[in-house]
Amino acid sequence: MVKINFGCGQEKLEGWINVDLDASYRPEVVADLSANMPFQTACAGLMYSEDFIVQLDLDSAYLFLRECHRVLKPGGIIRLLTPDLEKLTRAYLYEPEWLVATWKQFVGIPLKTQSACEVFNLGIRLAGQFHYDRKTLTGILNECGFHAKEVNYRQSEAPELRGLDLRRPDESISMYFDCYRF
Ligand SMILES: C[S@@+](CC[C@H](N)C(=O)[O-])C[C@H]1O[C@@H](n2cnc3c(N)ncnc32)[C@H](O)[C@@H]1O
């Protein structure tokens, strides 16, 4: 079965076709995923993408998901991880110390003020172009032909999608979806 990992960066998956715009990561396929993909229609059974869709503006994200729908076989699944705008906002409001500590441990870009305010600003500015909450993301996925099921870290009905997630819930603001192609 063909399995494709989009926006792999240096985290390439063995046995998968890893795709990235940046050739320095030496992915199997170098491609700009804000444009049509160099894959045949209905050629893939599974897809994975962690912390990539946030890098796209909204129009490009729609195109990317429509292309995923074209390339995925009916019944196929794309597992999508992306930062959760609501979790970031709640952390800023109610758990500022956790937010600052997590930034220091896992992002590491120095802070001038050591404040959750600064982490919130940097997080939005540096992490990508469009941050989703679950209602917005699942709505877009539905428009693009997917039923999005929120799942737990490293859990999936599909054995090959288990155990892939890099970002743990206690160490990140990720949300986790298995998206079933209609
Ligand atoms: C934050 S990294 C995520 C890497 C890895 N998936 C992870 O979870 O650590 C985002 C990746 O998306 C890639 N990327 C950004 N825009 C892209 C585009 N338009 N087409 C393809 N890849 C892109 C970047 O080169 C980078 O490797």
From TrEMBL:
Keyword GTP-binding part of the UniProt annotation: no
Keywords: Methyltransferase, Transferase
GO aspect biological process, one term: methylation
Residue ranges annotated for the Methyltransferase type domain, each copy included: 29-78
Domain of life where this protein originates: Bacteria
Keyword Methyltransferase: yes
GO terms, molecular function: S-adenosylmethionine-dependent methyltransferase activity
Protein name: Methyltransferase domain-containing protein
Lineage, broadest ranks: Bacteria, Pseudomonadati, Pseudomonadota, Gammaproteobacteria, Chromatiales
